Amino acid sequence: MTEDPGGDDEQAGSERSGTESTTAGPTNAESTNTGSIDDGGAETHGDHATPTAESAGADLRDVPAFTDGRVHSLPGEPEWPVLEVAVEYDAGWFVGGYDRVEQPDGTEKKYYWAELPPATVVIAVADGEVLFVEQYRPTIRETQLELPAGIVESGESYTTAAEQELAEETGFEPSSTTLLQEVWCSTGVLRHRRGYVFAEGLEPVAVDHDSNEFLIPRTVPVEDVLDRVRDPPTNDATLEGVLVAKHDGVL
């Protein structure tokens, strides 16, 4: 269940549910649902009731956004007044819509966004080698060398999800994981958090790929890894993960 690093990220599915591979687009089961809340009104979109927006912080914070019950994760209270929140598209594994916002000069503008569940990216080292997966990304029509990655499921931490993704994609299970960094991705358009996790103490386990994942495990020597991931074609999640690990001295 690899996180999709293309667009910026992004086409991630509902990874462990089988409805995703981040390489896959919406399925035939997807639906387009619209709804909005504005100035204290309540409305529903999909199967979920939207709470009243009496305060800016009430907008989407506790509304289920995904079919498995994951909730929206917004960073604190908005600094600019949110006059309306509208969900225009709900495919089950991502949600698209806009916030109508009052800007500092008093004008109003719709800021469109797409929301994806959080994702984990794994920097795993064994015997002086960094583990990667090679896979074709139909979204950008290129084969990429990527760090193992995947969606953080409901109730999981970044590190727990990293352990599972690493085992599923490479066949190794770590004895130790450390969250190095959490970031927001492509903040001009996405509501999507990503965590970078370092993993070590790897032991082989049985590989259980998703039926819609086609991966080839690869390794790169630690001393060559930065040059390798900077060599096009490359992607943000992989390059960022290596840079963070280098900076923190674990590579």
How would you describe this structure to a colleague?
- The chain has 251 residues and is mainly β.
- It folds into two domains: 35-115, no CATH class; 117-247, Nucleoside Triphosphate Pyrophosphohydrolase (Alpha-Beta Complex).
- It is built from three helices and 16 strands.
- Strands 7, 8, 9, 10, 12, 14 and 16 form a seven-stranded mixed sheet that branches. Strands 1-4-5-6-13 form a five-stranded mixed sheet, with no helix packed on it. The chain has a two-stranded antiparallel sheet with strand order 2-3.
- Strand 2 (43-45) and strand 3 form a beta hairpin.
Q: How do the strands and helices of this protein lay out in sequence?
A:
Layout: E1 35-38, E2 43-45, E3 48-50, E4 82-90, E5 95-102, E6 108-115, E7 119-126, E8 129-137, E9 142-146, E10 149-151, H1 158-170, E11 172-173, E12 176-184, E13 190-191, E14 193-200, E15 203-204, E16 216-221, H2 225-230, H3 236-247
Parallel strand pairs: 6-13, 7-14
Antiparallel strand pairs: 1-4, 2-3, 4-5, 5-6, 7-8, 7-10, 8-9, 8-16, 11-15, 12-14
Short overview:
The chain is mainly beta and 251 residues long.
pLDDT < 50 runs, ≥5 residues: 4-34, 37-57
What's the CATH topology name of the largest domain?
Nucleoside Triphosphate Pyrophosphohydrolase
Distance between the termini: 24 Å
| Biggest sheet record | 7 strands, mixed
Name of the CATH superfamily of the largest domain? Nucleoside Triphosphate Pyrophosphohydrolase
